[in-house]
């Protein structure tokens, strides 16, 4: 997408929602949903349309853990660090995941397959420890299951014809 | 012959492979002459048995669980479709499973039984009868219909289930009496569905298993105080709840339970889901309102109360999911019926959530007054790991860690306050003997560092200092020479710091963070900092 196309798309999203009471969060969600992150130029477009300052918009984006201004890997893996998960060994799981992927929290693997993020409670506390990828939660996670999960996620279907 | 199977679609069942089980069932049943329908119900809350597969038989629903994909073939071969008892996963009639049979389900009476997004199913199970009663109060008494509803809630003794336990009826009365400053006389109903406490999942389960009861409760709240706009502020960590809520709200609009002229009553109520963005503090009501207004979730000083100046400066009811979802039961069954459950000033039931290192984790709805020991032993069946339990944290990350000699305390708000603990939202997290209590105390502070909104100094800076002091204690202990004196000094410092946070913080985040820390210092003093070598050295520096 060219810069103009991106700007156009952002403006469309903003125009769709800007008349809602308290429109900013819904707008930011839509932008992040569209691009996977919030592109820098969105700040001034949103600010202008909502009659706010750039600083106010940036302040909101940076306040919330969910919003990000950088592209992630293909799969964002969130590991729950809540107490319920801790009591079931999430600490060991975090260590195993970090060493297996060779990254720390908020980093992306070199092959761009995985981004690892901490999350505080997925509400799956009775089947702890839990991990979330996109909208799917996995319960009773351990390091072996984690390896299987990442193997499955990293597998692509490629038609033989495309290789040529 | 037509056969009906039930496989839940709530987050926990899905996390344990419910979708795979459904696929396998569909695949294996496709050649049968019988017509097999699979209903995706909500979970019954018996999470240790998920995925729980049920089949409808003339005797009632028969359950099997936990079912994994590889069990499907043998289950079918051994008569799953007839409810046969030959399979090792056979559990008998669902209603007779002791874990469920021993509960007192009021708010969760439909959970797991109905298809969450089927409004007819809801109505057949007494759904909307609370709303009918509420609407009837308007017809009979003309001008005091609103007061009648509020009086009913007051009589029931319901206190907010979000944790602060403020009497719901009094909050509603304040909003009813408040004058809106806008010309449109706008008031709001806001549902706090930002269930961020670890160990709690009753809001999520309710929204995923019986979303119409929340919708009904919000409509009644709107009628009671004259508010025609509602928002459900749902955390972004609950995508499945969002999907189900959206489907339910659409259906409610189509069936004229939402929108203009609800069921030809002349009443109007609109409802919308708003998604949060990963900030624990937005579970605090004023910070939630800021977030709904499109700002950073910074807490507001109170007064003014949200009941008087809430969302966009207008009178607003902010209630938790469970509080609102309990309203239909109170109206349908009568305030006295609800009031008859419970002890002391804690009336009705609370959905307790058994989580963490527990063999049989799940949701247990019981009247107030039961004990932790009963929940842990009778329902939870002890630890998951098999190692004896050591500590139980009640009420989320800001709740106390209780040692075994406190497990007999009655679960009621006042009894918990007496032992410097909180019941909070009813979350119960069990830890076995391998737990490092120093790490848990340190984590409480660390969590506050990560999640403080930053508006007030005791919370913002206090939590950072808290982590530092505990780290220093750990270091001092490792360098055993002359450490006793230094440790004592640091201990005093930590006590002072906790006092400052309790007394000086603007909201419950900073004010309650010391609760888990103090409980560990008081009840697990032998362990506090004693197991320091378990720390990762890199983390300490």
Overview in brief:
The complex is a heterodimer of chains A (164) and B (541). Chain A has 164 residues and is of the alpha+beta class.
Please tell me about this protein's structure:
The complex is a heterodimer of chains A (164) and B (541). Chain A is an alpha+beta fold and 164 residues long. Chain A has helices at residues 3-17, 24-35, 42-50, 54-63, 83-87, 90-101, 143-153, 160-163; strands spanning 75-80, 107-108, 114-119, 131-133, 136-138. Chain A has two domains: 3-63; 75-163, Glutaredoxin (3-Layer(aba) Sandwich), CATH 3.40.30. In chain A, β2 (107-108) and β3 form a beta hairpin. By secondary structure, chain B is α/β, with parallel strands linked by helices. Chain B has four domains: 2-99, 3-Layer(aba) Sandwich (Glutaredoxin), CATH 3.40.30; 119-339, 3-Layer(aba) Sandwich (Rossmann fold), CATH 3.40.50; 342-432, Ubiquitin-like (UB roll) (Roll), CATH 3.10.20; 437-535, Up-down Bundle (de novo design (two linked rop proteins)), CATH 1.20.1440.230. In chain B, the strands form four sheets. A five-stranded mixed β-sheet of chain B has the order 2-1-3-4-5, with helices on one face. Chain B is globular and about 80 Å long. The relative contact order of chain B is 0.10. Chains A and B meet through α2, α4, α5 and β5 of A and α1, β12, β16 and α17 of B. Chain B: This is NADH-quinone oxidoreductase subunit F. Chain B: It comes from Thalassotalea nanhaiensis. Chain B: InterPro entries: NADH-UbQ_OxRdtase_51kDa_CS, Nuo51_FMN-bd, Nuo51_FMN-bd_sf, Nuop51_4Fe4S-bd, Nuop51_4Fe4S-bd_sf, Thioredoxin-like_sf. Chain B: Keywords: 4Fe-4S, Iron, Iron-sulfur, Metal-binding.
Which SSEs are present, and which pair or pack?
The complex is a heterodimer of chains A (164) and B (541).
Chain A (H helix, E strand, L loop, with lengths): L2 H15 L6 H12 L6 H9 L3 H10 L11 E6 L2 H5 L2 H12 L5 E2 L5 E6 L11 E3 L2 E3 L4 H11 L6 H4 L1
Parallel strand pairs in A: 1-3
Antiparallel strand pairs in A: 1-4, 2-3, 4-5
Chain B lengths: L1 E5 L4 H5 L2 H12 L5 E5 L13 E5 L2 E5 L7 H6 L12 E4 L4 H4 L17 H6 L4 H13 L3 H12 L11 H10 L10 E6 L8 H8 L1 H15 L3 E6 L4 H16 L15 E6 L9 H8 L23 E5 H13 L1 H5 L2 E2 L2 E2 L1 E8 L5 E6 L4 H8 L9 E6 L6 E2 L10 H6 L8 E6 L4 H15 L5 H22 L4 H22 L3 H5 L1 H10 L13 H4 L1
Helix pairs in contact in B: 6-7, 6-10, 6-13, 7-8, 7-10, 9-10, 9-11, 10-13, 17-18, 17-21, 18-19, 19-21
